[in-house]
């Protein structure tokens, strides 16, 4: 694992929560691994669908990030997941992704979650937008308040 991929894993509290490991990235490809544990489960002892979606989103985003222009980062703008069969507690999963197309503003990816026996658990596609990295003293994305927040703030003045 390179220093860059270790940094990406260590910098994400969410990935730490999921206990993701072995993130690898190369030109247009990414892979990570996870063992299904109690924190990944829904009822009936199977992986929660949101965990599967997050694993695919993370891996496909990592693949897209290898195509990101300088001074940009990626954000998910579309995510589709097809669940094929459950993943159970104790199963080792490999998540792989590849970039299908990369343009000036977006990248399109596909990914799969497979067991250690190569059984397909889920597949997905995603589109990522390349967003310009702001100056260090600015927020990554501007925060927007809805109209009711402004109305309350106006009445307090």
Explain what the structure shows.
- With 157 residues, the chain is an alpha+beta fold.
- It has a single domain (3-156), classed as Hotdog Thioesterase (Thiol Ester Dehydrase, Chain A, Roll), CATH 3.10.129.
- The protein contains four helices and six strands; from the N terminus they run ααββαββββα.
- Strands 1-2-4-5-6-3 form a six-stranded antiparallel beta sheet.
- The longest helix has 17 residues, at 49-65.
- The protein is globular, with a radius of gyration of 18 Å.
- The mean pLDDT is 85.
Features:
157 residues, alpha+beta, Thiol Ester Dehydrase, Chain A, six-stranded antiparallel beta sheet, 6 strands, globular
| Overall tally of domains | 1
CATH topology value: Thiol Ester Dehydrase, Chain A
Strand order of the largest sheet: 1-2-4-5-6-3
Main beta sheet: 6 strands, antiparallel
Give the overall shape: globular
Runs in which pLDDT lies below 50 for 5 or more consecutive residues are none
Tally of alpha and pi helices: 4
Give the name of the CATH architecture.
Roll
Helix content: 25-40%
Topology as H/E string?
A: HHEEHEEEEH
The first-level CATH class name? Alpha Beta
